[in-house]
Design brief:
The complex is a heterotrimer of chains A (422), B (335) and C (255).
Chain A lengths: L1 H17 L3 H6 L3 E8 L5 H17 L3 E2 L2 E10 L3 H14 L4 E3 L4 H13 L4 E3 L17 E2 L5 H14 L5 E7 L2 H16 L3 E8 L7 H4 L11 E5 L2 H13 L6 E3 L6 H4 L13 E4 L8 H14 L9 H19 L5 H13 L2 E3 L2 E5 L5 E12 L5 E12 L7 H6 L13
Parallel strand pairs in A: 1-3, 1-4, 4-5, 5-6, 7-8, 7-9, 9-10, 10-11
Antiparallel strand pairs in A: 2-3, 11-14, 12-13, 13-14, 14-15
Chain B lengths: L1 H16 L6 H28 L6 H16 L11 H23 L4 H21 L17 E2 L2 E2 L3 H22 L3 H11 L1 H6 L4 H27 L9 H14 L5 H20 L5 H15 L3 H14 L18
Antiparallel strand pairs in B: 1-2
Helix pairs in contact in B: 2-6, 2-9, 2-10, 2-11, 3-4, 3-9, 4-9, 6-9, 7-9, 10-11, 10-13, 11-13
Chain C lengths: L3 H5 L3 E10 L2 E11 L4 E6 L5 H9 L6 E6 L2 E2 L5 H6 L2 E3 L12 H13 L18 H7 L15 H13 L5 E5 L7 H12 L6 E5 L3 H7 L2 E6 L2 E6 L1 H6 L1 H7 L6
Parallel strand pairs in C: 3-8, 3-9, 6-7, 7-8
Antiparallel strand pairs in C: 1-2, 1-4, 4-5, 9-10
Helix pairs in contact in C: 4-5, 4-6
Classes of the chains: A alpha/beta (422), B mainly alpha (335), C alpha/beta (255).
Bound molecules: adenosine-5'-triphosphate and magnesium ion.
The site of adenosine-5'-triphosphate has 12 residues of chain C, from strand 2 and helix 2.
Pfam families (chain C): ABC_tran (PF00005)
GO cellular component, one term (chain C): plasma membrane
InterPro entries (chain C): AAA+_ATPase, ABC_AA/LPS_Transport, ABC_transporter-like_ATP-bd, P-loop_NTPase
Chain lengths: 422, 335, 255
């Protein structure tokens, strides 16, 4: 806080002395940050937590940058890209947001990044969305993503199971939409490269209840197949694991990021017995004693108390990280938004800082490079399940360590891409 | 009559001057959306007001046109086939009309709530198709970056040209509907709305008329669908999911499904509420609010806001000469 | 219409016509011969099957068994629309008019239906040449001064007149009137009778009527149905003299 005060004083003095850039310096215009998240529909809870991250970051800077008061406004989506676009237009074109933070889900992100091109006078930072395409396919100059995406989260695990577990043939069970495709994509990119093969992929609709037809085709124990990569979230994961356990399935399991989130780890049914030992990967780990994360959790709990979740979600962390990046860059340029945010965007492109999940920087597509954990589900002393870090891989970049050229050759994720059949 | 002419002039003036008094948000997101979305609603109002049939598949038909336009003008990830835009648009409207005809075929033997249910089933089937089909619909992702054409240096995607394009098409659709209902075909449709049995006994092929009405509604919805596509610059399964499908009915009922003007009134009010309700009410309660407004309209003015205005007008002007309000169209709904 | 070849045919021949609704036989093996230009009444108690017979002749209901031919042509399998083009017109027991349209438009829909093309969408009705036909038609049924009124605002009697007007559009050959006088005042009945008397002589007319007086005054020949079967046929005088029929008609033997 002291530093902020100093900066404020210094700016004012400087401006007064120079007497230039009259308008912005004298009036110290309010800078408006628009937060866009899913406040309706199935992702309402994560959406709310995301906006808590925005609020927390603004609060951390005392609600002003270089004398410019920071105002936060919000708009809602329901996960539908059309609705997200409508809300973004409202924030930018009607309410005059200078900086946009959001959205939450993958396909919304692709849409908003496209919209960013229409609005060069606004700076867009991602919220929680993690689709690959957003910053890969024809990326917008003024769209920045300081969080890692779905493929980055899973890439280290692919290599890991080949090299550390000696697997070379697996089956994949996944929900049938873009986020799981991205997760499979990241996993297989390094897995196939390391020599692994995929015998089969099984896709099921989101919200499926009955997995018996899939399970009937799955091996129950190791043999030709070494293990299974499961990319299901929430109740889908619980239902699948329960039914697989009831059928006596014993194949070793590695999972997508959502397979081991809190909703699954706190389940009590038959799925519970399969959970310990499952490997997954992602930007956070419960038991990593990362100072930045603990600090963030503390700050979150102090500020929100009972109003927030017991512990911040990944979405709160991602929204927070992106907002904080915006504020740091604003601070660096002393709130200068002239000339279509030229200085701010430049500062953002070169920004490096420590996010709750560790150091983060951007590549030429303005996509984050950051650390990823490989986690194992372990039983704690109190009987609860938690993610124990096996390894922390620093600086996982957008190209998953394959280099730009090799990566671009893989194409875009889909049901069938990539494939490395046995 | 003179009042109607006055109203026409006022509406034309408002449409013309509107861009010069509002910012780009009001121009595109409120204005453009009202006109494009309103045209989709118009296709529903046309069906209900003049044929007595309800449909929940109008957003779906609009989606067919939208997807077709995207497929033929903005191929993505190996999905699509780039064609010259006039060809693409003709194809898109043709496909929307065809989709309308097919939905009509499916719905032709049903009435009222059953038509609603069967068209809803079609709408949901289409939604899942777009979600799960990759070869044509590009699955969950759909098509992004679908820009309207640039004609002779005029970028139809820029806010002002897009607004006027929407306005011209909306006016044409509205005028088209008003025209068609005064042709022999249109009279026959109103006949089948009132007494299908009588119409059959007069020598008309009632099922054929019903199917054709759906086809025409499909054409109109297709135009709205293309505008909607360009407004969003993209289309994905979310564009044809349950929410937008229901929104069309909501906007229709809000504005009044007894008169084509109700389509645009409803679309306007719906768009405003959709964009600004969050300022007055917590987002979680938004749908409750919409539901309550809907309920209030259905209870207190079954012919929607236009009906309310018409009745108020009739009361105000009607003292003296007996200008009984137009027959209560709402009683024909679902016949 | 009055050409000799047609004259030799019967206008309508119905043979062994049967219609079942589940176990109920609404019309049971009815055979009729109606000469061109004949005025025929069909009498019978409630539920005798009169309307069902009309429905089959007009094509609204397919028969379970039997044949119908019109001026020598078998129309049993013809769609209702095609029968209209063959000259079959009908009215309904309960008035079916297009309430949302004006009287003129109601009549115009009827004219287009009988002449086609029915699906024209380019020219507005106001500019269609055959629209002039609505005036004389309205005049024939006494609605000339009500042309612009919405049909829903007509009185019951006027709606019956409008129905008749619609049925008369474009030279019908066989007119089926289902209880045209039902619910009319005495005065309205009289003008209806006058209208019927004014119909062209070559028009074949079949009339269902509960009011024996009207029926017997307006027709040349009477068919009596009972429980779906043909009970008796004869001239009005014969029927009036038949005590059995009188009893049934007064409901003494009714089901
Ligand atoms: N669509 C139908 N489905 C089932 N039963 C029917 C149907 N139409 C008529 N009926 C039955 O067939 C019988 C004959 O009916 P119809 O209407 O032909 O009698 P009607 O002679 O016209 O009588 P009314 O004088 O009451 O008009 C009645 O018992 C009637 O209930
Ligand atoms: Mg009857």
């Amino acid at each position: 806080m002291l530093r902020n005060g100093l900066t404020l004083g210094a700016t004012a003095t400087l401006a007064a002395l120079m007497g230039t850039t009259a308008l912005s310096a004298q009036e110290e215009e309010t800078i408006t940050i628009g937060g866009l998240a899913t406040l309706e529909g199935p992702f309402a809870a994560p959406g709310e937590d995301g906006l808590r991250g925005v609020e927390l970051a603004i609060e951390e800077f005392g609600g002003e940058i270089a004398g410019h008061p920071i105002e936060m406004i919000t708009a809602s989506s329901d996960g539908n890209p059309d609705v997200a676009l409508e809300s973004a237009r409202r924030l930018v074109e009607q309410d005059g947001a200078d900086i946009m933070i959001g959205p939450l889900s993958g396909s919304e992100g692709i849409r908003i990044a496209q919209y960013a091109k229409e609005q060069p006078g606004t700076t867009f930072l991602n919220g929680g969305s993690a689709a690959i395409e957003t910053t890969l396919v024809d990326p917008a100059e003024n769209f920045f993503r300081f969080n890692t995406e779905g493929a980055q989260w899973t890439a280290p695990l692919g290599e890991y199971v080949v090299n550390e577990r000696g697997w070379d043939n697996i089956v994949i069970v996944s929900e049938d939409y873009s986020f799981p495709y991205a997760q499979i994509f990241g996993f297989m990119a390094t897995y196939c490269e390391a020599g692994g093969t995929v015998q089969d992929k099984y896709f099921t609709p989101v919200g499926n209840n009955d997995y018996s037809s899939v399970i009937a085709q799955l091996p129950l124990e190791t043999g030709e197949v070494d293990g299974m990569y499961v990319v299901l979230g929430g109740s889908d994961a619980v239902n699948f694991l329960s039914q697989y356990a009831q059928m006596g399935g014993q194949l070793p399991i590695v999972g997508g990021t959502n397979v081991t989130d809190q909703t699954v780890l706190t389940t009590q049914g038959p799925a519970r017995e399969l959970l310990p030992g499952i490997l997954s990967s992602g930007p956070v780990s419960d038991n990593a004693d990362l100072e930045a994360w603990q600090e963030f959790v503390q700050r979150y709990q102090d500020y929100f108390g009972d109003e927030g979740l017991p512990s911040p979600s990944l979405f709160a962390s991602n929204y927070y990280t992106n907002t904080k990046a915006a504020l740091l860059a604003l601070q660096e340029v002393e709130g200068d938004l002239s000339n279509d945010h030229e200085a701010l965007n430049e500062a953002l492109s070169n920004l490096e800082f420590t996010s709750p999940t560790g150091p983060v920087s951007l590549n030429e597509n303005r996509q984050a490079t950051a650390a990823i954990y490989i986690n194992e589900v372990v039983e704690q002393a109190d009987g609860s399940l938690a993610l124990e870090p096996l390894e922390r891989i620093e600086e996982v970049d957008q190209y998953l360590g394959l280099g730009r050229e090799a990566y671009m050759e893989l194409g875009l994720p889909s049901r069938d891409n990539p494939s490395c059949p046995s | 009559m003179t009042l109607r002419r006055l109203l026409t002039v006022v509406v034309a003036l408002v449409l013309l001057v509107y861009p010069f008094v509002v910012n780009s948000f009001w121009l595109v997101q409120i204005g453009g959306r009202t006109l494009g979305f309103g045209t989709i609603v118009l296709s529903l109002v046309f069906l209900t007001a003049y044929t007595g049939m309800l449909s929940l598949a109008q957003m779906t038909v609009a989606g067919v046109a939208g997807y077709a336009t995207a497929y033929f003008t903005a191929p993505t990830g190996g999905v699509g086939l780039e064609l010259a835009w006039p060809v693409a648009l003709i194809l898109a409207l043709g496909l929307a009309t065809l989709a309308g005809l097919l939905i009509g075929l499916v719905a032709v033997r049903t009435r009222g709530i059953y038509t609603l249910m069967i068209t809803l089933a079609v709408a949901m089937a289409f939604y899942y198709l777009t979600l799960q089909n990759y070869a044509v619909f590009n699955g969950f992702t759909g098509f992004n970056n679908v820009e309207p054409p640039v004609i002779a240096g005029l970028d139809l995607g820029a806010p002002l040209p897009f607004y006027y394009l929407s306005a011209v098409l909306a006016v044409l659709c509205y005028a088209g509907v008003r025209h068609v209902v005064r042709t022999p075909f249109g009279l026959a449709l109103q006949g089948l709305r009132d007494e299908p049995q009588r119409l059959q006994a007069l020598g008309y092929n009632v099922p054929l008329l019903r199917v054709l009405a759906f086809g025409l509604a499909g054409f109109v919805a297709g135009i709205g669908g293309i505008l909607n596509l360009w407004l969003n610059a993209s289309i994905s399964p979310g564009s044809v999911a349950l929410n937008p499908v229901i929104d069309v009915l909501m906007a229709g009922v809000l504005g009044g499904i007894g008169h084509p003007a109700g389509a645009y009134v409803g679309a306007f009010v719906f768009t405003i509420v959709d964009n600004f309700a969050i300022d007055f009410i917590a987002r979680e309660r938004f749908n409750t609010l919409i539901g309550l407004v809907f309920l209030a309209i259905v209870l207190f003015s079954p012919d929607g806001l236009t009906g309310l205005v018409r009745r108020a007008w009739a009361r105000w002007a009607g003292t003296g000469r007996r200008r009984d309000d137009a027959p209560d169209d709402s009683t024909n709904i679902g016949k | 219409m009055a050409d000799a070849a047609v004259k030799q045919e019967e206008a309508l021949v119905v043979e062994g016509l049967t219609r079942r609704f589940g176990a109920l036989v609404a019309v049971d093996g009815v055979s009729l011969r109606v000469a061109p230009g004949e005025r025929r009444a069909v009498l019978g108690a409630n539920g005798a099957g009169k309307t069902t017979l009309f429905n089959m002749i007009a094509g609204d209901l397919p028969p379970s068994e039997g044949h119908i031919s019109l001026f020598g042509r078998d129309i049993t399998r013809l769609s209702p629309q095609k029968r209209v083009l063959e000259g079959v017109r009908r009215t309904y027991q309960k008035s079916l008019v297009f309430g949302g349209l004006s009287v003129r438009d109601n009549l115009y829909v009827a004219i287009r239906g009988a002449t086609g093309p029915r699906l024209a969408i380019w020219r507005r009705v106001e500019t269609q040449p055959d629209r002039d036909g609505t005036g004389p038609l309205a005049e024939r049924v006494g609605l000339a001064d009500r042309l612009d009124a919405p049909a829903s605002e007509l009185s019951h009697g006027e709606q019956r007149q409008l129905e008749l007007g619609m049925a008369l559009a474009h030279t019908p050959r066989l007119l089926l009137l289902d209880e045209p006088a039902a619910g009319l005042s005495t005065r309205e009945r009289e003008s209806l009778m006058a209208m019927l008397a004014d119909l062209p002589r070559d028009l074949t007319l079949i009339l269902i009527e509960h009011d024996l007086d009207i029926a017997l005054k307006a027709v040349d020949f009477v068919t009596v149905m009972h429980n779906g079967r043909l009970l008796a046929e004869g001239t009005p005088d014969e029927i009036a003299a038949n005590q059995d029929i009188q009893d049934i008609y007064m409901g003494k033997h009714g089901q």
